[in-house]
Amino acid sequence: MQTIAFTVNGRQVSGACTDRTHLGDFLRDTHRLTGTHLGCEHGVCGACTVLVDDKPVRSCITFAAGCQGADIVTVEGYEDDAVMADLRVAFNRHHALQCGFCTPGMLATARDIVLRLPDADEATIRHELSGNLCRCTGYMGIVAAIRSVLDARRPAQGASSSPTPAPASAKAFTGFAVSDEALGAAPRQAATAATAATAANEAGRAADRKGWSRIEGGFTVPYAADAVWAFMADLPAVAGCLPGAVLTEVEGEKVKGHIAIKFGPMSARFEGAARLQRDDARKRGVLRGAGQDSLSNSKAAGDIAYQLTARSASETEVAVDLQYSLQGPLAQFSRSGLVRDFVRRMIADFGKSVARRMDPTLSESERMKTVRLNPVALFFGVLWERVKGLFGKGER
């Protein structure tokens, strides 16, 4: 045992410890500074990061005895730190925390990035954060929060120093307050603007947006391409084929409404707005929307692109390309394989509903029956298919 002394959060402290006692354990057990979280205890996850002489270190693999005379700051000691004050506000604004376990270490690293790399771009921020693991947020909010602080602290240098704009469909929104720009309104300077905008959208989609998730699927309907294309322009009819979707306002190519989602433990109701862009000549369309779940305060933005291809005079293939961004507590669900399978299954069942809604031999009541899909049955159906797939790999 030996007695060590150093400064913690501006206060002189001392205590006895063994040579092998790590700084994280000493701070937590001896001084009850439990804001320093211990995760992997191998220096990998970064949750235990604290400042030692103003530099971030892993307290779980740093010996307390080696910090003799040092100046140590933990998450409890940032009250008078201007950079940390900005980061805390930004982390809250951009939903950069969820369970909070990684947050103390994440804030320490974020502070170091802001002070050491004032001109850091997104790639640099992500590289610097690679030593801090988060299993909840998907990092999008964390990166956005750090970028916002960096942008705000840069001196005014004309347009070049202004905050980097987010993708149009990922801009801030609340409920129905979604601007035309956020919904991808096409320029109207020329008669060919709609086609030009569609081409630009396709070019942007060729290289997936950073931080966005992508799911591709499709379906086939037994009707001519022209008939299917006309049906897809009827937004209320299309919404009627999607379970949980309710339109409250339709104005030309713009709609407002909400969609309820339930998938296993996840339940949400997103309210927002969307705009449909169509290229009649190429039979391609993009529905761009954004919304917010009032319960979890999660925000979503997405593009649903579809391409019609005539397989025959009476059969049309519809390819669907969904790209989306999810921020807030629900972001942890956005990339799971089970969710991706679920969405692909939903797309296929949506196609069945479209085919039935277009069937002229059925009455209106019969056509409407198919839109009442069962999310619970879908969930367990997808889960069962994955289980069968796992065990089926060994069969010959």
TrEMBL record:
Signal sequence, start to end: none
Gene Ontology terms for molecular function: 2 iron, 2 sulfur cluster binding; metal ion binding; oxidoreductase activity
Any coiled-coil regions, as ranges: none
Residue ranges of domain 2Fe-2S ferredoxin-type in the record: 2-78
SUPFAM superfamilies given in the database record: 2Fe-2S ferredoxin-like, Bet v1-like, CO dehydrogenase ISP C-domain like
CDD domains reported in the protein's UniProt record: fer2 (cd00207), SRPBCC_5 (cd07823)
UniProt entry tagged with the keyword rRNA-binding: no
Pfam hit, one: Fer2_2
Residue ranges of the TM segments: none
Keywords assigned by UniProt, alphabetized: 2Fe-2S, Iron, Iron-sulfur, Metal-binding, Oxidoreductase
Key word Zinc present: no
Protein name, UniProt field: 2Fe-2S ferredoxin-type domain-containing protein
Species classification: Bacteria, Pseudomonadati, Pseudomonadota, Betaproteobacteria, Burkholderiales
